[in-house]
Design brief:
Shape of chain B: globular
Strand content of chain A: 15-25%
Oligomer: heterodimer
Structural class of chain A: alpha/beta
Strand order of the largest sheet of chain A: 2-1-3-10-4-11
Structural class of chain B: mainly alpha
Strand content of chain B: under 5%
Shape of chain A: globular
Number of strands of chain B: 2
Number of helices of chain B: 26
Radius of gyration of chain A: 23 Å
Order of helices and strands of chain B: HHHHHHHHHHHEEHHHHHHHHHHHHHHH
Helix content of chain B: over 70%
Largest sheet of chain B: 2 strands, antiparallel
Helix content of chain A: 40-55%
Number of domains of chain A: 3
Number of domains of chain B: 1
Chain lengths: 336, 494
């Protein structure tokens, strides 16, 4: 206690070290106007290990993208960057760890839709505000395929729409809870005027489960992230109807997009961004943005992202924030 | 022959080194409680991407995956702490064997059982792999529900002197598993507004607490000086013991293999069912829990077979059966090796080299593990006052590392206290874990089935109806048989 009072502002005397610090801060700025403390602080980050939390288990595209990023920046910045999986509780515990962390850039989070834009759909009365965090940047995105069993009579997205309209009560589809696939199907139902609550979502807990359920003909349609979908589509275990992205996948250029089928509104990014605690200083946000932009130009990283079924998808801090805000609003409407 | 070519192509110094590295890491991960293969692979994945040898990297990750299944039994047998969740049933008879100075035999049969299961699993993968795995796809939610419901009957075998007690704690396990976000709608259950509880309870802290910490409390109170006092006996089981152990290895493999091909039927389910099977067909079921070699051999073979069989849907279809397999899939994709039927055509040499490495890797693991048996077995003769704090520390680290949160440490401590009282008052602990594992799986399978076609779907699909009927028959016959067994025999069990 006494220690703290002595260090407190006001009661503190000027020490030799303070004078030196002052000199160090003023010195360069005398030489170069504009070269102020800000730059010095910038140089000082990062000096120690950075923890990147992730609100889900290991192995998903989002987790792998986070790990790729960590591996790249570890080399660049020469500090340890640990990806720490903190699954459970609809990501609320991981989020709280982020919100309670010091905004010093040493605790950040890999942020997919499930821990940000879609969170309010499953958790009422969140103990924090999603928009209060610092959105650093969006890094990558994966697309979702609409897949059907190989024996399915549904050949196009239009067939799917007709079947859904004709018989919603018997229509089974895979839902991963508050995740992009679920959002896409809700957008689709809304676009064709079908009440989603009449349909039969088959709730799954993992992407591979969607693969087996669809390949085994247990559901009428599956919504599956590209990383898991690619092998089973290429192996002929399921038939793809469309990719719910604005652009075709480089790995499967023959599969049309939902927009080409006439359903542009259902395109949705299964994104991954990096977020920080509320009030993260802007120089840290900038430092990350510079590094991430550079990373996303690295051909090695681009090819690695492609191989795990993702594409580099950069959005700066402001655009990423706006994107989350828009998607969260839509989610609120659709899940009401 | 593709298989022979595959084995030959692994026999280069470089690939052997990768395989060896994977096996050693896997054994280590298996031995250390809490540290699972999935977490380790997630850490290794970005590193392996820098390797210039994709085949080597995949061989290493695969070795890590099946190596972990080998090592999991070590701490179960020696200290009653499961090294992996799938090695929980190994504690039931493995630890009593250690207390009798037979740790060597238990470790020996666990290693040999793992080898038999791993090798048979690889043979099945090489011969009938893709064709066999197709059956797994016809297994939908109603079939899973039937199978899981049937698995619940294992509670009877784990109950000790009273089935009622077993059922009660089995249901307790199921209730504990419901804490946190409901797997279907995400609604919070039993969280009492506490953020920590919204995470739900994780299996590892609960298991480490109930078994490990509970055991330490009971043993310390009893003033145990050493887990085993006296000179250690033979390391290799002989004669009849060996025959019984090997028989159980074969049965465990036969059970674990088909279960391993079903996504979601993780190794723990297979090992619990194998333990139950051994007890059920045994001529002396009352002796289980007191150090019966079949109780170690069956589950260990089953969980290794289960792990190895996971490669069948993974390589044939690109469908991972669990988190570790999902990471191997990710690694394959990063190297541009698309798993699926085409893998055996477009990357034939690679596919068979990886399969070849599994034969070699299983032999390596056996060579690695058998000489260690004697060394490990000596742990049982370390004075308990030195051993107990180490075990306790390992328990705490294990609990923390499963989800990187202090909350799980408190869960483990709480579970330890509950485990202590349960042991003292002769309540069975096994059913708690079984209920905990099966509860959420049953809930999801039931919900999926109901949405697919209402309750009748469970009875109208032949496999699920047959499994449900089988469960009823097993329960009825158990009640009937129990009535004929004198009560003294049943109580002797605990």
């Amino acid at each position: 206690m006494a220690q703290r009072r002595r260090d407190g502002i006001g009661s503190r005397g000027v020490t030799r070290r303070d004078v030196l610090k002052l000199g160090a801060a003023i010195g360069p700025s005398l030489l170069l106007p504009g070269w102020s403390e800000r730059v010095l602080a910038q140089d000082a980050y990062p000096t120690r290990a950075i923890d990147i939390l992730y609100g889900f288990g290991a192995g998903s595209s989002g987790d792998l993208t986070t790990r790729l990023t960590a591996a790249y920046l570890r080399k660049k910045w020469n500090v340890a960057i640990n990806v720490i999986n903190k699954p459970g509780g609809n990501t609320v515990p991981a989020n709280l760890d982020l919100y309670n962390a010091k905004p010093d850039g040493y605790t950040l989070m890999g942020d997919p839709p499930g821990s940000s834009s879609m969170l309010a759909a499953v958790v009422k009365n969140l103990p924090f505000k999603v928009m209060d965090r610092t959105f650093i940047a969006m890094i990558g995105a994966a697309g979702m395929f609409l897949i059907v069993p190989p024996t399915s009579p549904l050949k196009t997205v239009k067939d799917l729409a007709d079947e859904l309209k004709r018989n919603p009560e018997q229509f089974t589809w895979t839902s991963q809870g508050a995740a992009t696939g679920d959002l896409i199907f809700r957008k689709f139902a809304q676009a064709i005027g079908v009440d989603i609550s009449k349909t039969k979502p088959v709730i799954v807990r993992s992407a591979p489960e969607i693969a087996t359920l669809t390949a085994g003909g247990q559901v009428k349609v599956g919504l599956l992230v590209s990383a898991t979908a690619l092998p089973i589509i290429q192996g002929g275990l399921v038939r793809p109807l469309a990719l719910a992205l604005p652009k075709r996948s480089p790995s499967l250029p023959d599969v049309p997009t939902a927009a080409e089928h006439g359903y542009p509104t259902i395109s949705t990014l299964s994104f991954l961004g990096i977020s920080g605690p509320p009030k993260l200083p802007s120089h840290i946000v900038d430092k990350w943005n510079v590094a991430l932009q550079e990373m996303l130009k690295d051909p090695e990283i681009i090819s690695q992202l492609n191989k795990i079924g993702s594409i580099p998808f950069y959005m700066n801090s402001r655009d990423f924030r706006q994107y989350i805000m828009d998607e969260a609003e839509l989610v609120e409407k659709l899940y009401g | 022959m593709d298989v022979i070519n595959g084995i030959i192509s692994v026999l280069t110094p470089e690939l052997l080194l990768y395989s060896f590295a994977g096996c050693v890491l896997g054994t280590l991960v298996g031995v250390l409680p809490g540290l699972g293969p999935a977490a380790t692979m997630a850490i290794l994945l970005p590193i392996t991407m820098n390797l210039q040898n994709p085949t080597g990297a995949i061989i290493m990750l695969a070795g890590l995956y099946y190596g972990a299944a080998y090592g999991g039994s070590t701490t179960s047998i020696l200290t009653n702490i499961p090294g992996e969740v799938s090695s929980i049933p190994t504690c039931f008879d493995g630890f009593p064997m250690t207390k009798q100075g037979r740790a060597g035999e238990a470790l020996w049969i666990a290693a040999v059982g793992s080898f038999i299961a791993g090798t048979i699993g690889t043979i099945v993968l090489s011969i009938v792999g893709p064709g066999f795995a197709k059956v797994a796809l016809s297994f939908g939610p109603p079939e899973y529900f039937g199978l899981l419901f049937f698995s619940l009957t294992a509670i009877i075998g784990l109950s000790g002197d009273s089935v009622i007690k077993g059922l009660a704690v089995g249901i307790l396990g199921m209730i504990l598993a419901t804490i946190g976000a409901d797997p279907v709608s995400g609604t919070m259950r039993f969280s009492f507004g506490l953020v920590s509880l919204t995470r739900g309870l994780d299996l590892i802290p609960v298991a480490v607490g109930l078994f490990g910490i509970g055991e330490i409390l009971v043993s310390s109170e009893a003033g145990m000086r050493k887990i085993y006092e006296g000179t250690l006996g033979k390391m290799m089981p002989r004669g009849n013991e060996l025959k019984k152990g090997l028989g159980a290895c074969i049965r465990g493999t036969a059970l674990g293999l088909p279960l391993g091909m079903l996504p979601g039927m993780t190794p723990p389910v297979a090992s619990f069912m194998a333990y139950d099977l051994e007890k059920r067909i045994s001529k002396y079921p009352e002796k289980f829990g007191t150090g019966v070699i079949e109780g170690v051999a069956g589950p260990e073979a089953a969980n290794n077979a289960n792990a190895q069989a996971g490669f069948i849907p993974l390589m044939a279809f690109g469908i991972p059966t669990g988190p570790s397999a999902a990471l191997i899939l990710a690694a394959l994709m990063i190297y541009g090796l698309q798993p699926g039927p085409m893998l055996f055509v477009t990357n034939k040499e690679f596919a068979w080299t990886v399969i070849g490495s599994m034969y070699v890797g299983n032999v390596m693991l056996l060579i690695l593990n058998l000489p260690l048996v004697g060394l490990w077995a000596r742990i049982s003769t370390i004075p308990y006052k030195y051993l107990a704090p180490v075990i306790l520390a390992v328990c705490v680290v294990a609990a923390y590392s499963s989800r990187n949160t202090m909350f799980d440490v408190w869960v483990a401590v709480g579970a330890g206290v509950i485990g202590y009282f349960m042991k003292k008052s002769q309540w069975p602990v096994g059913p708690v874990i079984l209920g905990f594992i099966l509860g959420p799986m049953i809930e999801v399978a039931l919900d999926q089935s109901l949405n697919m076609g209402g309750p009748m779907i469970l009875f109208s699909r032949p496999i699920s109806a047959a499994l449900l009927l089988l469960a009823v028959i097993v329960v009825l016959s158990a009640i009937f048989l129990r009535r004929r067994v004198p009560r003294e025999v049943l109580t002797e069990d605990s």
